[in-house]
Design brief:
This protein has 217 residues and is mainly alpha-helical. It has 9 helices and 3 strands; from the N terminus they run αβααββαααααα. It has a 3-stranded antiparallel β-sheet.
Length: 217
């Protein structure tokens, strides 16, 4: 049983369930019942309902009438739409951050990110490498000056992470992703933003291919 602080029950339950869904501990299509979750967390239904509402807003679970709430199951078409959309958003964020005069700050964060991720890849610290890999895609959003762009990306990225968590554990994919992140970084460092945007979209297309390959495996 998890011990939770009452004032933040809903947030803690949300964080735990989100992590379980993204990491695959709770499988796609699995049903989440109030009874089971109440037994797991030893709380009333109210904070659980609040947590499930947030997960629904994140598109990580879906409510079906007469069935209940199930973890989202992503089809091939879903994945194609998600990866394409995220690729477009990521590339727009790079352009916005650059045009808003936030180039230097963005580049510094990217430099630190690439340095850390290279280190973690070298020592095969998968957990921290994945954190760096995910963070790389979020850096431009921190400087893009557009809250709606950030909100759109956050809403979709949860679904993407369900798939990426399944293949980013493998060294061969880590090396491919790392190489492409470094190529994007080098283009941004050279102020070649148009090519960086293009490379970011290509990177997400390559990640889509990996996701589909692992989904069908």
């Amino acid at each position: 049983m998890s011990h939770l602080v009452k004032s933040t029950l809903s947030s803690q339950i949300y964080d735990i369930l989100k992590e379980d869904i993204i990491q695959g501990t709770i499988k796609p299509g699995e049903k989440l019942t109030l009874k089971f979750l109440q037994e797991r967390f030893q709380v009333s239904s109210t904070p659980i309902r609040e947590a499930l509402t947030r997960l629904t807003e994140d598109s990580l679970v879906t409510y079906y009438s007469n069935v209940g709430i199930r973890v989202v199951e992503l089809t091939k078409g879903d994945l194609e739409e998600i990866y394409q959309f995220i690729g477009d958003l990521d590339s727009i964020a790079i352009r916005y951050a650059y045009d808003n005069g936030n180039y230097e700050a963005m580049l510094k964060d990217m430099t630190d990110n690439i340095t850390d991720s290279q280190k973690y890849l070298q020592i095969q610290d998968t957990k921290n490498w994945i954190l760096c890999s995910d963070s790389f895609h979020l850096i431009a959003y921190n400087y893009c000056g557009n809250k709606r762009l950030l909100t759109s990306a956050e809403k979709m990225r949860g679904q993407l992470t369900i798939m990426s968590a399944s293949y980013e554990q493998k060294l061969e994919y880590q090396e491919k992703i790392q190489k492409e992140h470094e190529e994007i970084y080098e283009l941004i460092e050279a102020h070649n933003i148009a090519e960086a945007q293009k490379k970011m979209k290509e990177h997400l297309n390559h990640s889509l291919s990996i996701a589909l390959e692992n989904r069908d495996a």
